Amino acid sequence: MTDRILIARIGAPHGVKGEVRLFAFGEDPLALKRYPLTDESGARRFKVQSLRAAKDHFVARLEGIADRNAAEALTNTDLFVPRDALPAAEDEDTFYHADLMGLRVEDQSGALLGTVLAMHDFGAGDVLEYTPEGGGRTLLLPFTKAAVPVVDVPGGRIVVVPDTNPDETPPEDADQA
Q1: For residue 49, what are the contacts with CB-CB under 8 A and spacing of at least 6?
Q2: What are the tens digits of pLDDT across the range 155-177?
Q3: Domain at 97-164, CATH homologous superfamily
Q4: Which long-range contacts (CB under 8 A, 24 or more apart) does 167-170 make?
Q5: Cα distances (Å, whole numbers) of residue 137 to 25, 98, 167, 170
Q6: For the domain 4-85, what is the CATH superfamily, name and number?
Q7: Which of 80, 96, 131, 133 lies 20 to 30 angstroms, CA to CA, from 163?
């Protein structure tokens, strides 16, 4: 497991006074004001001075960022927080996405299907992306209890029901062609 968790990404500047668009990845975006944030290398530290909601993101003022040029230089900077600064998972069905990366993907019989590559949220719920064991293009599954009935982080695996994969499900009218 990683000792730092990706918690937000800085977007483009907002206005001319150094504010930035901020895309938060946690359940409580306002908690970003409490966390010790760093860039990916851990060398640069950030403190959120103010945070307000916008359409599909937040607008943040970061300590030491006073103008648009300074804000622009931070565009696409990922913000990380130390794992020990985050709350523990509340139940067995709560995970940090970082803990799922690299887990073995198995079917219900235990056959290896691939490896977890990424988690995505396109607006309709989390989607799991995995690399197939035999190579080829990555596959996507909805990250639901029906499609992913077992998540065993300590055991290094997840169990999936492959026929819930939209990429492998034929269209409803496929047999009418």
Answers
A1: 33, 60, 61, 62, 63
A2: 999 999 976 544 544 445 444 44
A3: PRC-barrel domain (2.30.30.240)
A4: 167/139, 167/140, 168/139
A5: 26, 22, 11, 18
A6: RimM (2.40.30.60)
A7: 96
